[in-house]
Description:
Helix content: 10-25%
Number of helices: 3
Mean pLDDT: 94
Radius of gyration: 16 Å
Largest sheet: 5 strands, antiparallel
Distance between the termini: 35 Å
Strand order of the largest sheet: 1-2-3-6-7
CATH class: Alpha Beta
Number of domains: 1
Structural class: alpha+beta
Bound molecules: zinc ion
Number of strands: 8
Amino acid sequence: MKIVLIGSPLLRKKAKPIRKVTSELVLLAESMAEFMKPTGVGLAAPQVGLGEAFFIYDVGEGLNLVVNPQILERKGFGTDEEGCLSVPGVYAPIDRSTEITLSYLDHTGKRRIHKYVDFEARVIQHEFDHLQGMLFVDRITDPSTISVQEDSPVAAALTRTIEERGKRL
Ligand SMILES: [Zn+2]
């Protein structure tokens, strides 16, 4: 497994819904979890080069597999620093809803509707964005708030992304 970095078109495609949650998908989710464990709390399919609509996350309470998610409702507003395995060495404060209602299929294929708050809601919104082809850096409103580590391998790609976005605004 290899992490797809910012600059790759794979991160910009909208993910396709999954027809059925299979045991193969659950196994794949488990190996993605092992892969992200040392540094990440979440990993979306496009970040490992897959085009299907699912992500995993673990905020310290065990692994969650989220398939074909839809955000039904958003409430509240909060700002906190985020980073991303696909944008290594880059951190920035990002505005997110503090409460979301999510509809999705779980690891058994069962449809669930659940409310999430605070950090967990933030992680889900970040991973959900990946499935829409969006990265957290796209949500940066003030480029001066970005912190980029000197050895970041994606500094040039990040600059390009922000410049291109500036042109569209
Ligand atoms: Zn990410």
